[in-house]
Write a structure and sequence with these properties.
The complex is a heterodimer of chains A (392) and B (213).
Chain A (H helix, E strand, L loop, with lengths): L25 E5 L11 E7 L2 E8 L7 H7 L6 H5 L6 H16 L5 H29 L4 H21 L8 E2 L2 E2 L6 H27 L2 H7 L7 H6 L5 H5 L6 H4 L25 H24 L20 E8 L4 E8 L5 E7 L1 H6 L2 H4 L5 H11 L3 H5 L1
Antiparallel strand pairs in A: 1-2, 2-3, 4-5, 6-7, 7-8
Helix pairs in contact in A: 3-4, 4-5, 4-11, 4-14, 5-6, 6-11, 11-14
Chain B lengths: L2 H12 L3 E5 L6 E4 L4 H10 L7 E9 L34 E8 L6 E8 L5 E3 L8 H11 L3 E3 L27 E2 L2 E2 L2 H5 L22
The chains are: A alpha+beta (392), B alpha/beta (213).
């Protein structure tokens, strides 16, 4: 059954330790209900003892064919489906979609709406990164940071609930603006207060609890190293690409919305604990991005102008001129792009979604090979995938 | 480098393999002959000055019933009717299938978009998975949902749907299924509650399981 040619030298199966006794590769089914696979990801492993020989992801458990649905509903209706792609950072997904629609539509979005978009998207990004830290720590056996991270995420959900009405899925953006203005003056003050608290206290807490914990570092340094070349080849984006030492962020390098107005840095992996591009680097990029998001939010709140929040009436249908365009934005997981082909009507002829998790996960077929099964769990955690976005 | 200049280089290299360049619209796009696409991709990746090291997006397309006049009169896709039954149509799908490639170069910081069209009767074109590994899954998705076959792909299987699935959902003439395995997918059957409320049993024992009618 085992393919003798594909065996590697690192394990037991191909070594003749006991003459006359042959060993075989074992097939191990990891998922789809395995807690360490972050959703309904199923991995079909061929293992030799503890060593992974082949890793085949099996996808599609959450497939709804949102791209087909998009062809049957109008542009405004589809915003709420984008919420369901990356349900941990739904506002970022909204942002990607409306950016794509507006690229074709050529509408001028009010400045205030752009600021609100940036504020809510960055809050959502922080929430998503907090989940990434929390569950990653959980995978590595650290229970406590989960409770800390969820506490702060709860505060973000409260803030987003006050402005958008929902706690998990917001449907907050519309082509041409956002649905609601800030509920009251106190909201912006609360956002600033939360951001300050996160920057000055909480990130330090996470670093002390998790990031610079000796056990945590030992577990992650030099594990699952993605080289820069591999990252490009496999189309990795977001923290996975930046963890490999590449300074690329769509907010900076292919700017959209009002991000060029704000001053922030793009953290990259530097191999502080081991090799550039290991699991710890990818993890640490997310922690540092939380701080940078806080900076962006503060500037966006401070410079927010007054005025309208949507350029097109909320009940007015949107009609796009004929044309096709690919537009990409930086979601919390990486480059989230939409390729929209319009035939001039109210519904897209085609809306292809390029989701970052889909592209980031593929590299597991290469990097997963030769690792221990327990390191594979660390590797999946460090990729920070969301299956709603992979399966769409 | 400007997209137009990149296209000129492709014309220089491949001659008739480069079919045209559309400059108008929100995004310039080059049309490439399908049989040349893998060579063109390799050239775009390796040629000094172009260096497209990332395939941002690969989209399978179905141009069936596309309204070229830009009036929004494209053929509407088939869904379910009011009664929950799949809609059907006598129309036969006839438009071309296609693939769009969106490339980006991290070194040169430029983008390029190219498109190919393949006939619906023989939707086959060379795979670019050997050029950019990320195309592996994207091409599997295009094969799965649009039904385009990529020659030379290392592992061309369905990726999101199961192997036994019939048809390719993103084709414009795709008829929605009325069952999925043993599960009926029409609205009528779903309207009937599969878990009817049971009468509370005065004796206090567990309620009987609902029986088949």
């Amino acid at each position: 059954m085992a393919n003798q040619e594909t065996k590697m030298n690192s394990g037991w199966a191909d070594q003749d330790h006991v003459p006359g006794i042959k060993s075989e590769l074992m097939e191990l089914n990891m998922g789809p209900q395995h807690p360490a696979t972050h959703g309904v990801l199923r991995l079909l492993l061929e293992t030799d003892g503890e060593i992974v020989h082949k890793c085949t992801p099996v996808l599609g458990y959450l497939h709804r064919c949102a791209e087909k649905i998009a062809e049957g509903i109008n542009y405004k209706q589809f915003v709420l489906y984008t919420d369901r792609f990356d349900y941990l950072a739904p506002v970022c997904c909204n942002h990607a979609y409306v950016t794509a629609v507006e690229k074709l539509m050529d509408v001028e979005v009010p400045e205030r709406a752009e600021h609100l978009r940036v504020i809510t998207a960055e809050l959502s990004r922080i929430a998503s990164h907090l989940i990434a830290l929390a569950t990653f720590g959980l995978d590595m056996g650290a229970w406590t940071p989960l409770l800390y991270c969820f506490r702060e995420r709860e505060a973000i959900l409260d803030l987003l609930e006050r402005i958008a009405g929902g706690r998990m899925l917001y449907n907050f953006f519309v082509p041409g603006g956002v649905r609601y203005d800030v509920p009251d003056e106190k909201w912006t003050a609360d956002v600033l207060e939360f951001v300050t608290m996160l920057e000055t206290k909480k990130v330090k807490d996470y670093n002390q609890l998790l990031s610079y914990n000796k056990i945590f570092i030992e577990r992650l340094a030099d594990v699952g190293v993605i080289s820069q070349q591999d990252a490009f080849d496999y189309g990795s984006t977001g923290p996975v690409l930046r963890g490999s030492g590449v300074s690329f962020d769509c907010r900076k390098d292919d700017p959209y919305s009002v991000y060029p107005k704000f001053d922030f840095e793009v953290p990259v992996g530097r191999g502080e604990m081991g090799t550039v591009g290991d699991c710890w680097d990818r993890y640490m990029v997310r922690v540092r991005e939380i701080e940078q998001s806080c900076r962006i939010i503060r500037q966006a709140v401070d410079t927010m102008p007054g005025g309208e929040v949507h350029a097109i009436g909320l009940t007015k249908p949107v009609k796009l001129p004929a044309g096709a365009a690919y537009s990409r934005t930086e979601s919390s997981k990486g480059e989230l792009g939409h390729y929209i082909i319009s035939d001039g009507g109210q519904m897209p002829f085609r809306n292809k979604v390029r989701s970052p998790s889909f592209c980031n996960l593929q590299i597991i077929e290469k990097i997963g090979v030769g690792q221990m099964v327990s390191d594979l769990v660390a590797f999946i955690g460090s990729l920070d995938i969301v299956l709603g976005e992979i399966d769409r | 480098m400007e997209q137009k200049a990149i296209y000129e280089k492709l014309v220089e290299k491949f001659g008739e393999g480069a079919l045209g360049f559309l400059e108008e619209g929100p995004e310039p796009v080059a049309d490439i002959a399908p049989q040349k696409i893998a060579e063109a991709a390799l050239y775009l990746r390796d040629e000094a000055g172009l260096e497209f090291d990332q395939l941002m997006c690969l989209s399978g397309l179905d141009w069936d019933g596309f309204d070229e006049n830009g009036k929004g009169k494209s053929v509407a896709i088939l869904g379910y009717d009011v009664g929950g039954q799949p809609e059907t149509s006598d129309r036969v799908g006839e438009g071309d299938l296609g693939v769009a490639y969106h490339l980006y170069s991290h070194g040169q910081r430029h983008k390029f978009t190219m498109r190919v069209r393949v006939p619906r009767t023989a939707p086959t074109l060379p795979s670019v998975a050997g050029v950019w590994s990320t195309a592996g899954w994207h091409e599997r998705e295009a094969y799965d949902l649009v039904g385009i076959t990529f020659e030379g792909h290392p592992d061309l299987r369905r990726i999101l749907l199961e192997e036994e699935w019939e048809g390719h959902p993103l084709r414009k003439d795709y008829v929605m299924p009325d069952r999925w395995g043993q599960v009926p997918l029409d609205g009528k059957n779903l309207a009937k509650n599969p878990f009817p409320a049971t009468e509370p049993d005065p004796s206090g024992s567990a309620p009987a399981a609902p029986t088949e009618d």
